[in-house]
Amino acid sequence: ALCKDNIYPGFQMFAKGYGKNNEPLRGYLLTFLIALGFILIAELNVIAPIISNFFLASYALINFSVFHASLAKSPGWRPAFKYYNMWISLVGAILCCIVMFVINWWAALLTYVIVLGLYIYVTYKKPDVNWGSSTQALTYLNALQHSIRLSGVEDHVKNFRPQCLIMTGPPNARPALLHLVHAFTKNVGLMICGHVHMGPRRQAMKELSTDLAKYQRWLIKNKMKAFYAPVHAEDLRDGGQYLMQAAGLGRMRPNTLVVGFKKNWRQTEMRDVETYINLFHDAFDFQYGVVVIRLKEGLDVSHLQGQEELLSSQEKSPCTKDVIVKVDYSKKSETDTSIAFAPSSSEKTHALRKEEDEDGKTPTQPLLKKGRHFPPFFVLSSPLNLADQRLLDSSTQFQKKQGKSNIDVWWLFDDGGLTLLIPYLITTKKKWKDCKIRVFIGGKINRIDHDRRAMATLLSKFRIDFSDIMVLGDINTKPKKENIAAFEEMIEPFRLHEDDKEQDVADKMKEDEPWRITDNELELYKTKTYRQIRLNELLKEHSSTANIIVMSLPVARKGAVSSALYMAWLEALSKDLPPILLVRGNHQSVLTFYS
């Protein structure tokens, strides 16, 4: 068994079986040679202490293993001995260790060193075998007991943690979204990757069972401290509601919904846009905070990589396998991808080079051209267009160490402090430690100094380090005419123009297409529209060089603002900017003056 599991290098050859009974003749030969080596010492007084210590060590380990299995209360551990007692096993293990020292102290020390070395090696190597060990059972028991104990603890602002439900779909389809959220949840809070399967129930059930194990392994292999949670639903909104209500366990439940910005909202069906917007409203109804993440290049890279084949290649072989990705640009779907594995090095279209990374390691990475580094699973069969090259670059930008730059926080609404807490947590991570926080707030021109001092005092009480505070007195200034014109041009296809139609026709159209923007609505929310356009101008002026921007998310009143107008606000606010997080808490305090 030891040789078959390939736990120690060089021993697998002794596991080869022969004959009908698959007898390990090589193993027998190895055992014979070891025994012969001790016999050849030919001095019983020398052999006895060594042999006795090794036997006592094995008895001690067996007794302790039995005790540990009982301690873990595993249902699979059912001892048949009538007079068995776990504490007698523990006493037996301790006595064996004591007797080892009584017989020969130096042989006992030697035995301990050998056993400890073998244990450390197995722990470090982490062999891909599942023994159903008592350690796993005890880990489960501890997790269960602590979860139950935690469920009886009342929430307190000092113990608030961002526990995020991320609508990722397949986790490897949006790596930038995953890594950015991981930057402020790693070792701090819970992260659950939600995946809504839509379509025929029978097919979806098969996918759920396979995806659950597959993508959880993918997260572990990529060192993501997260859980994968798939559900089947008729549409995205139903699936999101299921996840928000049922995901988590006890106090370890999500309190923040994270979604990527719907970049193609103008080209997709507006029914899907309404579903997307309703997710926000549902999140607020369930007392969730909401975070919308937008990258200029986009988040979805599923059309650039083969998810199934990539995962299977990682599982089958410890070495990196070459994946040829063929991107089909003739289709509009973002998930159409054809991939194949390169069977030999002669078929590679791009050479692999070893480049020194920031940690001093030398991972092998394919290079599309000098200066562009991609994950080791990307070997492209043909040059990508410029947009896909940028998308590929942006998908890995949060996996690298961030240089000296700024995280700009635009705190425009008091939503409980989540907009301030997230950037603080990001800067506590090793990759982001060189980034400084700059805070932008709105104010009046004649009170700029006063507002800056007040904000500095507040941040000091919150114990949040910052490099600068900027008070914007011109935040309510009317935006530039060309930007207003660009916004009006953007929303033109979504307007109802009821004044140009008969009343019956306009009412019927509004009933059938509630997402359309009415003239009255546009006039009623003109000030708010201008504010989003103006904020984008200020963002470009002050934060165009920031690593990331964290900003308060504008919220539309449910049933009062059409989906098209709200998406136009988000588009106008966040376009042509560095990575931006639009954050809105649930108005429960997450920061306190008291530690």
TrEMBL record:
All residue ranges annotated as the SLC12A transporter C-terminal domain in the record: 174-595
Membrane-spanning parts: 28-48, 54-72, 84-103, 109-124
Keyword Transmembrane helix: yes
Pfam families: AA_permease, SLC12
Keyword Membrane: yes
Gene Ontology terms: cellular component: apical plasma membrane
Primary localization: membrane
Protein name: S12A2 protein
Organism whose genome encodes this protein: Tricholaema leucomelas
Amino acid permease/ SLC12A domain mapped to chain residues: 1-165
Classification via Gene3D superfamilies: Amino acid/polyamine transporter I
Keywords carried by this UniProt record: Membrane, Transmembrane, Transmembrane helix
Localization terms from the record: Membrane
